[in-house]
Amino acid sequence: DGGITQSPKYLFRKEGQNVTLSCEQNLNHDAMYWYRQDPGQGLRLIYYSQIVNDFQKGDIAEGYSVSREKKESFPLTVTSAQKNPTAFYLCASSISPRQGTQYFGPGTRLLVL
Amino acid sequence: ILNVEQSPQSLHVQEGDSTNFTCSFPSSNFYALHWYRWETAKSPEALFVMTLNGDEKKKGRISATLNTKEGYSYLYIKGSQPEDSATYLCAFMSNDMRFGAGTRLTVKP
């Protein structure tokens, strides 16, 4: 079945630690996105990628990094510079940046120990 | 309006009631308006994509309208059922995609 997978479902981070959230898609989509959700707020864009080896900062990129070495994969690293990382993280993809319907993964909840 | 705003934040209705909620968005640089349905423990799923002023879309008991000149879209659910319980997100697309905070609908049997 085609779709987007995210792992892990829950992730715990210690102070000062970098952690990486996985996002994989087999939909052959060019564009991929990372969003963060906090209670009572809409999805906020962290990073997006329109094509392999290219990515752009979203509204809240500070403290995060990404890579796009393969079309199928768009991992997100939450670095120690992100002072408030506790949130729900959603990955999404679309056929192209302007072909707007996005398909979402199941999400990863990140908690700080 | 600079951001995407949805109202109400939450809504509780009885099974069989019809309901509607609002998405407000900037009226300039409009490209498309998306509605997504997000059930608990699942991924958000696309309901509608609307691009033209006056667009009306319908899927079963759910329908949506679009007014790009005044910057709002309505989502209607006719005869709500418990399985309609979910958070309904709208997203405004111009140069990027901006999501509202959602309306959380609970339908009581």
Q: What level of helicity do the residues of chain B show?
A: under 10%
Based on CA atoms alone, the radius of gyration of chain B comes out at 13 Å
Helix run count of chain B: 0
Number of strands of chain A: 11
Low-confidence segments of chain B, given as residue ranges, are none
Average pLDDT confidence of chain B is 93
Report the β-strand fraction of chain A as a percent range.
Answer: over 45%
Write the H/E string of chain B, N to C. Answer: EEEEEEEEEEE
Instruction: Please state the oligomeric state of the protein chains shown.
Output: heterodimer
Describe the structure.
- The complex is a heterodimer of chains A (113) and B (109).
- Chain A contains no helices and 11 strands.
- Chain A has 113 residues and is mainly beta.
- In chain A, strand 4 and strand 5 form a beta hairpin.
- The termini of chain A are far apart.
- Chain B has 109 residues and is mainly β.
- In chain B, 0% of the residues lie in helices and 55% in strands.
- Chain B contains no helices and 11 strands.
- In chain B, the strands form 2 sheets. In chain B, strands 2, 4, 5, 9, 10 and 11 form a 6-stranded mixed sheet that branches. A 5-stranded antiparallel sheet of chain B has the order 1-3-8-7-6, with no helix packed on it.
- In chain B, strand 4 and strand 5 form a beta hairpin.
- The termini of chain B are far apart.
- The interface between A and B is medium-sized, with 21 and 21 residues.
